[in-house]
What does this fold into?
Amino acid sequence: MLTLIDDGRGFSRRSFLRIGSLALGGLTLPQLLAAKTANLTNSKILRDKAVIFLFMHGGPSQIETFDPKMSAPVEIRSITGEVKTSIPGVTFGGTFPKLAERAKRLAIVRSFTFGGRSDHDLRPIAGRESLDANLGTIYSRVAGANRPGRGMPTNVVLFPQSVDPTAGPNNNSFGRFDNVGPFGSAYAPLVPGSSGGGSIQQDMKLKMSRDRMDDRRELSTLLDGVKRKLDFEGFDDYQRQAYETIIGGVEKAFDLSQEDSRTIDRYDTSRLVNPESILKGRKLGFYPRYVDHGKTLGKELLLARRLVEAGCGFVTVTTNFAWDMHADGNNPGMEEGMNFSGTVFDHAVSVLLDDLRDRGLEDKVLLVATGEMGRTPKLEKGGGRNHWPHSAPLLVAGGGFPMGQVIGQTTRDGGKPATEPATVESLHATILHTLLDIGQLRLQTQFQEVIRIATAAEPIPGLRL
It folds into this structure.
């Protein structure tokens, strides 16, 4: 932890800073920065791209999202109906009217499949196909865990608690989003708002007396004073970068209060949910997660946009299990659940798409949205759908790819691909080919694990740079 100490006489090298319990000669953060930027000589490998991976935790239905099958029997077709999109002949589920208007800026992969396994694991983002490592960790292994010159972490995971401390606990019950696999803890994602964020997150906390912390102008003045009066003579580059990271602009990227109030209002999804209605008679089970999803998803995506704009290369956003729609008492059915989660998703993702375009980031940032599986083609008793691995929704936007397309098709009941399947491996290849120059990567012998994941399959057809 960083402590600013003001003894009334200004700052000196002996008294102005303390990081954790360590003296200036043995800083944890500079050591981390030195280790984590060791690979930044590989800049030729890195493309000027970033990824926001929106993980639809719980398993979203392919039919109520992007493949409504309204000509199928009533027990199969979308229970929320359909809405026409801006692409002639293409419809989305009825709770996605805003995304339907923006369909020409999306690529929908209808042939996405998980094969024969339907578990609540994290395969698209941190599962066996990625050596049990978060995809952002794989990116950081090449990019370094901090952006040079800015100190911005290159890999961040956002849970609802990252933007709202009153949200429920981070859901790692079915796998950890911060897994690093064989790549080592130096490349672990930063997890804001979580005690599990790692030592670098703890080191970046600012601490000063409460009465002065309440005065933002006083804090700003204090930090400016540190920058002016700090004597760096005798410090190495990584010690210098550590201080610049902490007292520089990194913390501002994580601070939503720095954003224009009108932008915050546009992203706000809390008005789309009525907690009393959702929780009425449902204090148990997963219903509180739908409240968290509604309160936080828009702000999570706003924070993700701020981070990629500031230099973060990979941001995972998780909806914390808000797509589990069994209609089993603990979870809602498809109609109720889509009115909760689908409406919020439709608004938040649409605002993000518009914001990225308005800020000139549409071609730079690749948005990926999917879950860990799909849902059964046939509605079950109570109007829910059970686990289903053979067909699942996948939305892609931006990244410089051709948009306004539907890739692949499913069978008449939406139960499996009717065209060449898109797999988890091909999704990983698409993402890593977006972020990295694979030809240059192959020239570096130290990245064999990364090469293996990036080349396990070809990128999804139609999504190649």
User: Anything to note?
Assistant: Residues 207 and 352 are 33 Å apart (CA to CA). The chain has 16 helices and 14 strands.
